[in-house]
Amino acid sequence: MTRRYSSRKRILVTGGAGFLGSHLCDRLIADGHEVLCVDNFFTGDKSNIEHLAGEPRFELLRHDITFPLFVEVDEIYNLACPASPIHYQHDPVQTTKTSVHGSINMLGLAKRLKSKILQASTSEVYGDPAVHPQTEGYWGHVNPIGPRSCYDEGKRCAETLFFDYHRQHGLEIKVARIFNTYGPRMHPADGRVVSNFIVQALKGEPITLYGDGKQSRSFCYVDDLIDGLVRMMDSAAEVTGPINLGNPQEFSMAELAGQILAATGSKSKLTHAPLPEDDPRQRQPDIGKARQLLGWEPKVPLAEGIERTIAYFRGLASA
Ligand SMILES: NC(=O)c1ccc[n+]([C@@H]2O[C@H](COP(=O)([O-])OP(=O)(O)OC[C@H]3O[C@@H](n4cnc5c(N)ncnc54)[C@H](O)[C@@H]3O)[C@@H](O)[C@H]2O)c1
Q: Which of 20, 85, 223, 254 is 20 to 30 A (C-alpha) from 120?
């Protein structure tokens, strides 16, 4: 679809070569917009966006958002930040800088351009939650000095910055709190549970369950999540968020492993490893606000999303 010039927007996606960012670039191009994808390729990969290389409305810029950026755009989606514990703990100071300095730089850009800006925040702002399911009104239970704090507290500080730019400078902001999302283009070695289990199952390696495997998570398929982000960006100015985006259906890690074993037909055995420090026991979004304000809810069932994700990882293995 190519939009008429009047309705076509020039949209910046930071972290656009990553898992979620690349799907967002696809969606915005399909919607007829121009996309400027900015990435420093820390966890992103050119292969995630190489299919867009011949597209005249797509542009790629290698840049680290902890440094200022001067470009002209109508909207900004700020997704740049390593999202898996293995990656964000690799260089924790850079992780905090990406959330804090990166947000300051992108908010400064939005202020200069008077453009809307959306922050990809996270359910990790709730920490190991004492309230279940988590509503946006819950302030969280977060360790400020642990190994996960660079990510959790960095994202919390980014939310603070977004709301202060909104109150102090009248900036139009959108803060989306994203819960576990999975799908094609997840990094195969980033230790996130869905990709981990699928890769282990496809290789016939033992599937690692942390703790007793009873801790629960909810998993949102990437297409649903991207639709939520776009709806949020397009929502009325007074809808600032934070809004939870995720799939409220809850599964234990043991159930997830069982589904993946069945779908891959793998003979992998289950093994147990100690629970990582500060690993939340339960995580489930309350998506009442997203339903009410965005008319959004996830549509893709876990079994279907897992099939599509397995197909992607099979393709990688045979490439
Ligand atoms: N995938 C999820 O389940 C999930 C859940 C909650 C929040 N999020 C948030 O969504 C966003 C995208 O996550 P993802 O899963 O696609 O992760 P990802 O690691 O695949 O993508 C992050 C992208 O940001 C880039 N990046 C990192 N630091 C940068 C910097 N300083 N400058 C420029 N680019 C930089 C990386 O190279 C990568 O392409 C992140 O902000 C993450 O915190 C994701």
A: 254
